[in-house]
């Protein structure tokens, strides 16, 4: 379900485009971290719902959500054209470019404002020994990796793009009706597959695959899950 929901989606395109300009492993780590956190939060919320509402009703609610999402995806897929997919790809590309241009401008302004102060600090700062540099180099590299602008930008954009997405609602519904741990594991595994494909060759894939076909296939999967949830609710499985 996660795979058919995410292929060609905005989070998929963000990872694909960022991986074209930045290290793939860094983009993959940032995107998957955001998706994993969102998945765990969604599954935990879904797991808490049965404590407030009887499980039979949560199964009915899950069936209703899956049914509505399936109908929506059928509608979107039926009216979708290849130009729509290209337009979304161009829109995400432009959005990322605008953010990068803004960050470059802010860095340039901050750099020019602090240039004199930094020069004075460098003149009076005591030189570090080589051994001390070697001891701290690994820790510095780790912090630079985790808190680099690329990591933060990819993480934040992926997290916000996933908020309220079909896969998030599906994760909540599944966790409300089934074991939270296995739902989380399955969802994170699905996200890792999609993100891996995105950073390796996502842009080429997004421009060649039929997003319409993937959307219609996702609609079928959602309807199947709706039937399963309805069966479990009716027979109290």
TrEMBL record:
This protein's GO CC annotations: cis-Golgi network; fungal-type vacuole membrane; Golgi medial cisterna
Record-stated family: Belongs to the GDT1 family.
GO MF term (any one): manganese:proton antiporter activity
Keyword Membrane: yes
Keywords from the UniProt entry: Membrane, Transmembrane, Transmembrane helix
Bilayer topology term: Multi-pass membrane protein
Record's protein name: GDT1 family protein
Bilayer-crossing regions: 25-45, 57-75, 138-161, 181-202, 214-234
């Amino acid at each position: 379900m996660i795979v058919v929901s995410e292929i060609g989606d905005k989070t998929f395109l963000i990872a694909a485009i960022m991986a074209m300009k930045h290290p793939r492993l860094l983009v993959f780590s940032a995107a998957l971290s955001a998706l994993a956190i969102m998945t765990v939060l969604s599954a935990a919320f879904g797991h808490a719902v049965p404590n407030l509402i009887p499980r039979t009703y949560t199964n009915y609610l899950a069936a209703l959500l899956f049914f509505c999402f399936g109908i929506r995806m059928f509608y979107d897929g039926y009216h979708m054209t290849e130009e729509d997919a290209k337009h979304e790809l161009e829109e995400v590309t432009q959005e990322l470019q605008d953010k990068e241009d803004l960050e470059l401008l802010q860095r340039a302004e901050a750099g020019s404002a602090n240039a004199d102060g930094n020069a004075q600090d460098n003149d009076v700062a005591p030189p570090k020994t080589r051994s001390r540099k070697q001891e701290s180099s690994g820790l510095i590299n780790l912090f630079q990796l985790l808190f680099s602008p690329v990591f933060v930008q990819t993480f934040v954009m992926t997290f916000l793009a996933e908020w309220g997405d079909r896969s998030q609602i599906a994760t909540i519904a599944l966790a409300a009706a089934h074991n939270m741990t296995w739902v989380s594991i399955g969802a994170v595994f699905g996200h890792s597959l999609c993100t891996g494909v995105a950073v390796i060759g996502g842009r080429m894939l997004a421009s060649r695959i039929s997003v319409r076909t993937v959307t219609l296939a996702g609609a079928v999967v959602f309807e199947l899950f709706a039937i399963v949830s309805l069966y479990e609710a009716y027979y109290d499985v």
